Amino acid sequence: MSNSPPDSAVVELRSVSFRRGDRTILDAVDLSVRAGEHWALIGPNGAGKSTVLGFAGALTHPSSGSVHVLGQRLGRVELQALRRSIGHVNPRHPLGSPLTIREVVLTGLTGSIELQPRWEPSSKQVRLARELIDQIGLTGKDEDRWPTLSQGERGRALIARALIAEPDLLLLDEPTTGLDVAAREQLLETIDALDHDFPRLASIIVTHHLEELPSTTSHAALIAEGRIVETGLAEQVLTTENVSAAFKYPIRVGQHDGRWFALPGRQYAVVRGG
């Protein structure tokens, strides 16, 4: 068998295990994400979702098995160069300086939290930052500063920051954390629009809550106790039976107007369609 993933694979995990001391975090995980696919990693706390995302972001090496990201095998590639082709959205972005939205977006080009000393963006890069800020719905807010932004504005700014380096892979680590309902829906609309604006971009989102999935979610992986329970097309994976098994609790799963929801399994029936 070849050591290379399929040409179209953006992320490929093969028999991946990860151990920390005597504890097994992941055990024999297989996952394949291709260009243009939008994946959700779903599972209870401690299931191993963030560890899988760490592999996809070239931040973590497996204890055994192989991980290919953008055609490169971890352990045989210069990680900093690889990470520049990966956009990462983390609502816990540890920025301490009062940068403007434009400056925050531009840090996506240097892969840094703060502005790099003596680094000056080109006029083309500044123009691209402004276009992305408009695209994510923050027109006219280029000079608004980080400490004054709402959590929802920060989330959208971080999406623009992730996109400015024109990545092939976008990772979203619980991006709606701390948002109220309106801000959550605005952020999800921004994520959904990426499917049209960047059709080849692959994405992986980690969340605990089905209602926080973008409507463009095409595939899903259910993770429980360090193993993949089910993986494949979202509509085939995110079923009442599968989700209940992963969370070890009766959960009724359904869709309404293209969005997922979950309800207590003992009280409600599954609802499908509009």
Describe how the helices and strands are arranged.
Layout: E1 9-20, E2 23-34, E3 38-42, H1 49-56, E4 64-69, E5 72-73, H2 79-83, E6 86-89, H3 101-110, H4 123-135, H5 151-163, E7 169-173, H6 181-197, E8 202-207, E9 219-224, E10 227-233, H7 234-237, H8 240-247, E11 251-256, E12 259-264
Parallel strand pairs: 3-8, 3-9, 6-7, 7-8
Antiparallel strand pairs: 1-2, 1-4, 4-5, 9-10, 11-12
Describe the structure.
By secondary structure, the chain is of the alpha/beta class. It has two domains: 1-85 and 167-249, P-loop containing nucleotide triphosphate hydrolases (Rossmann fold), CATH 3.40.50.300; 95-166, Helicase, Ruva Protein, domain 3, CATH 1.10.8. The protein is built from eight helices and twelve strands. The strands form three sheets. Strands 6-7-8-3-9-10 form a six-stranded mixed sheet, sandwiched between helices. A four-stranded antiparallel sheet has the order 2-1-4-5, covered by helices on one side. It has a two-stranded antiparallel ribbon with strand order 11-12. Strand 11 and strand 12 form a beta hairpin. The longest helix is centred in the last third of the chain and has 17 residues, at 181-197. It is globular.
Summed up:
The protein is built from eight helices and twelve strands. It is of the alpha/beta class and 274 residues long.
The number of distinct structural domains comes to 2
CATH homology-level superfamily of the largest domain = P-loop containing nucleotide triphosphate hydrolases
| Oligomeric composition of the shown chains | single chain
CA(first)-CA(last) distance: 46 Å
Question: Architecture of the largest domain in CATH?
Answer: 3-Layer(aba) Sandwich
Shape: globular
Radius of gyration, taken over Cα atoms and rounded to an integer in Å: 19 Å
Query: Which regions contain 5 or more consecutive residues with pLDDT less than 50?
Result: 268-274
Percent in helix: 25-40%
